[in-house]
Every structure is written in structure tokens, then in C-alpha cells.
Amino acid sequence: MTSTSYDVVAVAAVVLLTLGIGVYGLRLARTTSDFLVASRAVSPMWNASAISGEYLSAASFLGIAGLVLAYGADMLWYPVGFVAGYLVLLLLVAAPLRRSGAYTVPDFAEARLASPAVRRLASLFVVAIGWLYLVPQLQGAGLTLSATTGAPVWVGAVLVAVVVTVNVAGGGMRSATFVQAFQYWLKLTALAVPALFLLLAWQGDGAPDLAAPAGPVFRETTSVVLDDPVRVEVVEPVTVDVRGSGPRLLGAGEQLLPSGTLVFPAGAAVPHIDRIERATGDAWARPLSGAGGLDHPLYATYALVLATFLGTMGLPHVLVRFYTNPDGAAARRTTLVVLGLLGVFYLVPTVYGALGRLYTPELLLTGRTDAVVLALPGALIGGLGGDLLEALLVAGAFAAFLSTSSGLLVSTAGVLVQDVLRGTVRDFRRAAVAAAALPLALALAASSLPIGQVVGLAFAMAASTFCPLLVLGIWWRGLTAPGAAAGLVAGGGLSAAAVLSTLAGLADRGWPAALLAQPAAWTVPTAFAVMVGVSLATRDRVPADVGRTMLQLHAPESLGLSLRR
Amino acid sequence: MTEPPRRVAVTSPRTSAVRRPPGRQTLLALDEQDVVGELLIRSLIRAQLLLGLRLAAVFGCLLGGLPLLFAVAPSTRDVQVLGVALPWLVLGALVYPSLVAGGWLYVRLTERNERDFVDLVERS
């Protein structure tokens, strides 16, 4: 068998297992209530595995390592924020949100503020955030299949979209819970086991310095395949062998490399694609050095911290899971287990990012840094062992795309079915198809974007809209419907504008680029300020039953109060 | 001689009413949201919010202080601990167990708040 056929087998196995568990779950899904919330009969350990399985997306499995490879120490804040977001969720949101009985943020908005208008506005942002988060998942799938098997990019994206739609439309939430829980353990194994072998291989290689002072060099004669022409910055003149047209001298400065196969000699400095700046080992290993060409690293770090810490609670697929806990206390315990499961997982991606700088530096030339996790086994171990480890990683990556996409699909379809269509099982299926179609079209149309960064933007948007809505709604009686609506429009509008201009590449360098690429630092405070300010100005619109809602959100269930649930 | 005043038993006029088990009244006060009930639930909400904000502030200072530390005292970026640069050791590994510890502490304390609240309601 070739390396490619192992990868194909791995993808097929994950897809079949996912569908198989989905079918097993389908036999259990009998009523609409079963369908949507697994009848709330999911134990904390299953639920925590499912939450983690759903949460660990392409950004976690591939994106973090790619960002660390390109931009160094500052990128460690991504995984830290992805976990710390759950601590904030636990401290401020978990139990009251479960007690609210809300299935989605729009449900919460309506229960708390009795306003169909705020509900519709919230639905709009659920769908926007869900789609923004789905696109990089599908693109990650395309990248993975094309990097490992050479298939066209659209194949992976379509495959994941179809499998997830079939699974979600067919089995609903119950099957999703089983599938997600299984996917967490698969992803952890698939990332951690190859990492151990890679670390052993690195030790066997004499444990060379991961942050060598000179910056990335080709350790041995390396052939680089370019699918498209790439504009690169050459630091030292180097003679490369262009397959089919002989040797060519690349002078220092900006160069346009043609598509095709280029062979670089051992010891040559790696020319970097123009959007990634070449960094010395010291700069790469040091926080706040701006390695890779990121401007204003201190601002960017704080904005990222704010987006991830506060954004997690507002992600559509995260919130839905809390409804499957039997009560508020169980919601808290589940969140605690999630903190542990995620903490273990996020120890691993950094290893790939650091080793990649040494062993797969050509990704800095091609710009496909998100593929570093998949490329390392072949580069560092090779042979049958390398092929098998690569296949394992491909399986884990597909588990990541499938689980996050299906979680996002369940929740966006849930919002669509509740707010757009009538609430029956048949319509849930139609909504799932609709919710998958648009992101697939976007993923196929848009050029490939760095996965980690796009997911970071989705966090920023969630932090600028649903974080203020949830936190103020749970803890402050004074929140009014006009205040919530104004805050959602302000925070959501500003962050959406920042996201769109970043995706369109409107600002390249300097403060505008930094502010737009990491908008949370200014959009989150704005959203909070507008929500509080407008609420204070419309004090007469505080819902009359706010006292009862507060009682429901905060009183322990063991009192057995006669509350509307 | 005047007779000593007759001793009179003072009772509620509703002697026929079923005696409530202890705690029913406070529970009812909560449910019907009278003044006492409002005060009770407000005190619980305040205690829970303060607990959450305090822990959030602790982690905000510890984690949020790191970039500032690296910016103000650049030498901390290069400190080596057990052969690993300090920022990588802290952000790559040590952060995670401390987040779990924080979560565990919060669950303990918040459940104690709720237990105290339930005791208060059921005792009175």
C-alpha cells in the first residue's frame, strides 16, 4: 500500500464510524424532544467528552500548530484562551444558563427579555457566527485531503459537508452526542501518539535546537512542490533546481517562484512567502517580538485574550450542549471535566509547531503552514511508520472537521428550525441541509484562509455579541430589550465589519491591520457600554417578571420551586 | 379583694389550619417573591456573582499580567527553567492544570453557597 492509500483508508474509517454511530443513535431517537436534546439524559462524562469533541476543531487540530510554526510564542495564547474561555463560562454562565432552560441564545434572550425582536437579532448572529466557524472547517478538510492524497481541494470540503449533513439530519442530537464523545478520544489519541514518536525521533536526531539562531534552513536537499506561483522574499541568493528547466539562481529580494517542483540544496536559508516574515530563532521563541510580521504584538495579545476568554460562552454549538445536563450543578461539573479534557489536549499542538520549524520549513515557503501536523511524520520519521502515523493524523483531523461541523450544524439548524420553520423533525432535516449549503459554497468560492485566524474572528464576534447579552442578562436586573438589541447591533456590527475587512485584506500593516485583525479589544467594551447605557436610558422597559426570571436562574433546583421550565 | 386577672391563652384564630413543616414559609416567600423572598434571592445572587468575579479577577491578573510582565521586564522572556524558556513552560503547560484547579475551587465554593442558601430556607 502507498502512503496515499493509508490516508484514504483512514478517512473512510472515520467517516464510516461517524455514520455508523449515527445510525446506532438514530434507533434511539424517537420523539422530537429526543431528537433535539437527547432527552436530557446524557451523563456528565459523556457530555464533557462530547463538548470537548465538538469544540476541538480544525483550528485546534491543525491551526494552532500552523500559527506557532509561522508566528512563534505569541500564538500560545490561542490554546490558552480556548481553555480559559471555559473557566469564564463556568464562573459566570454555566449553571444559570442551564436553569434558564434555554436551548440556544435566542431562547435565552426571549425568556429573559420577552422580546421577539431581540430573539430574531440573536438568531441572526447565531447563524453568522456558525457560518463563519464552518467555512474554515470545510476548507481545512479540503487542505488535508489535497496535502496528503493530492485530491482537488473541493473533494474534502464536499465530503465533510455531505457526511455531516446526513448524520445530523438523520440522527439529530442524540447521535451527535455519541459521535462527539467518541471523536474527543479519537482526536486526543491521533494527535498525542504521533507527537510522542516525533519527540523520540527528534531525540534520536540529537535533539537539535528548536530555535536555531539563524532562522529556518533546509536541513537536507528538499524538493518543494508549488501548485501555484508563489511570491517569496529571498534572504540569501540560492541556486535551485527547477524540474524541467534546470538550475536557476534566485537573487536576494522579492522573487516570483513558478509553479512546479523546485529542489533546494541542503543548508540553504528558506525563502518565506511574502505574508510571513522570516524570523530569527530568538525572535520566534520570544513573546511580543512580532515574529512573522505581526504588528503591535502587545495589543494583539490582549485582544486575542479578550476574544477567546469571553467568546467561548457565545459559540452556538457550545451553548446547546448545556441543555443536555439534568440541572445547574451538573452543568458546572460537566464544565469542570471539560477544562481537564481540553487542558490535556492542548499540551500537544505546540509540539508540532515547534518541530515543524526544524523539519518542515518548506511550509513557510508554500504558505501552507496549517499542514504542518500532517507533514511532520513523513519528514521526520518516513517509511511505513511515518505513513501510518500520517494516516492516524488524517483520521484525527477528519474527526475534528466532522465533529465541529456537526455541532455547528445542529445549532444553526436548531435556530433555523425554531425561528424560520415549524418545529417538527422533518423540518429539522430540511434546516440542516440549508445550514450546510451556504458555508460549503463560501468554502469553495473563497481562497484558503489561515484556519486559526478565521476561527479567532468567530470568537471575537461571539465575545462582542453574546457575552454581554448572557453576562448582563444573568446578573443584572436592569437589562432591557432595547438595551440588548442596541448592544447586539453595535458589538455585532462593528465586529462583523472588522471580520469582513480582514477577510478582504483591506488593511495590510500598522495599527489599522492590528485593530481589524483582532477587533475584540474595542468591540467587546463597546458592546457592553452600549447595552448598559441604552438599558439605563430605557429603565421603564425592564421586564415586569424579572424577579421571577432571576429566581429561576439562580435558585438551586433542590428547593423544588414551582417554576416555569 | 380583687380577683387576679384571668390567664388567657393567645392563639392564632386559624387553629384549624394545617401546621406547615419547617421551611415552607420561606420557600413560599421565595416563590411568591414577597419582600423576604426578594432579599433572600438577592443575597444569593450577590454572593454567587462576587465569587465568580473574584476568581475571574484572580485569573485575569495572573494570566492577563503575563503579557505585561513580558513587556515591562523583557528579561523574563528569556529565563530558562529546566531547559525550557519560561513563556513556553507557562503558556504551553502550567496554565492548564491551574485553570482546572481554579474551576475545581469555584465548583466547591459555589456549591457551598447554594447549600447554605438551601439550609437557610429550610431551617426558617
Structural overview:
- The complex is a heterodimer of chains A (565) and B (124).
- Chain A has 565 residues and is mostly helical.
- Chain A has 2 domains: 3-207 and 281-559, Up-down Bundle (Sodium/glucose cotransporter), CATH 1.20.1730.10; 222-269, no CATH class.
- In chain A, 68% of the residues lie in helices and 6% in strands.
- Chain A has helices spanning 3-26, 32-37, 44-55, 58-71, 77-92, 94-100, 105-113, 116-149, 153-204, 281-285, 297-311, 316-322, 328-345, 349-359, 363-366, 372-381, 383-419, 425-445, 451-475, 481-503, 510-517, 520-537, 546-554, and strands spanning 222-226, 230-234, 238-242, 246-250, 253-257, 260-264, 272-273.
- Chain A is globular and about 80 Å long.
- The model of chain A is unreliable at 30-36 (pLDDT under 50).
- By secondary structure, chain B is mainly alpha-helical.
- Chain B has one domain (25-123).
- Chain B has helices spanning 24-32, 35-72, 86-123, and strands at 80-81, 84-85.
- The longest helix of chain B is centred in the middle third of the chain and has 38 residues, at 35-72.
- The chains are: A mainly alpha (565), B mainly alpha (124).
Largest interface: A-B, 46 and 45 residues
Tally of alpha and pi helices of chain B:
3
CATH superfamily of the largest domain in chain A: Sodium/glucose cotransporter
- Overall, the morphology of chain B is rod-shaped
Helix share of residues of chain A? Answer: 55-70%
Oligomer: heterodimer
Largest sheet of chain B: 2 strands, antiparallel
CATH architectural name of the largest domain in chain A? Up-down Bundle
**CATH fold call of the largest domain in chain A:** Sodium/glucose cotransporter
Secondary structure tally: strands of chain B: 2
